Amino acid sequence: MIKNTLTMILLLLCTMLHAQQTTLSPEQIKAITPEWKGERSADGRPHVPDRLLERLKAVHLEEAWGILRNKGYQNQFEGDWIVLHPDSAMTGRAVTAQYLPLRPDADKLIKDKGKAEGRIGAPNSWPIDVLKNGDIYIADSYGKVIDGTLIGDNLGNAIYAKSARGVIFYGSVRDVEGLEEIKGFNAWIKGYDPSYIQQMMLGGINVPIRMGRATVLPGDAVLAKKGGVVFIPAHLLEEVVLNAEFIALRDAFGHQRLREGKYTPGQIDTQWTDEIKKDFLQWLDANPGKLPMSRKELDQFMKDRTW
């Protein structure tokens, strides 16, 4: 798997260098995310709705993971992070970046292409320049901690100013105390160190990347909590959110009826009878304030669900 991943990265790198670009083109991004049929950003990434990203914050990691696994997406979770503010959830759209151990000839090509494209500053600032509101900067820096710090508090401030979000790095940062002072900014990282970035090079922006046990594409919806991060293919976001919300409603109804003694645990934990289903629908009508989605969305969702 590692060999295949490296081969894909090198092929993408060669393609980008040949095409005189440091990032995939909008057409290339559309080509690797063909199942998304909705709005796209100018760079070609899927642009999932803000309303779904806001609702995604309430979804449990296990629920999102389970729904994706049932859809055949078994490699979308990565855990074991150091989280800057563990009690805060973060959702957004992925802007990806691939970093590699420094190789002078390839590094020169990337820097020359970046200069030709009008990019300013060091390559580790280039992914920040493309961020828009609602984006999360996702970087694979192959777990490097010492001399692998992608940002400090200056770049952290720039990231938050552009995206109102934070970062998820399979690597490290520096100046954690300064980053903690940026109100609203959060980070999921593998380590931190006072050293500066050395012997690393940018491989590409908005390319497919590996984040531990997960594969991430540009435009993926991201759910980051203290327990880990789930990377959700854009075309599955609405289904993940609605499924999780429906499960939460079922649980709220079931817990209430169990406390009331109306049903036994065996009745609630197995396939519901028509009587319980009817009771659930009446409960929904009597508790419209509990619905995180519109009733129209819920009714449409329940038509295709086998309870």
UniProtKB/TrEMBL annotation:
The keyword Acyltransferase does not apply. The keyword Transmembrane helix does not apply. Pfam families: RraA-like. SUPFAM superfamilies: RraA-like (SSF89562). Mg(2+) binds at D175. Its cofactor is Mg(2+). Substrate binds at G152, D153, N154, L155, R174. InterPro entries: RraA/RraA-like, RraA/RraA-like_sf. This is RraA family protein.
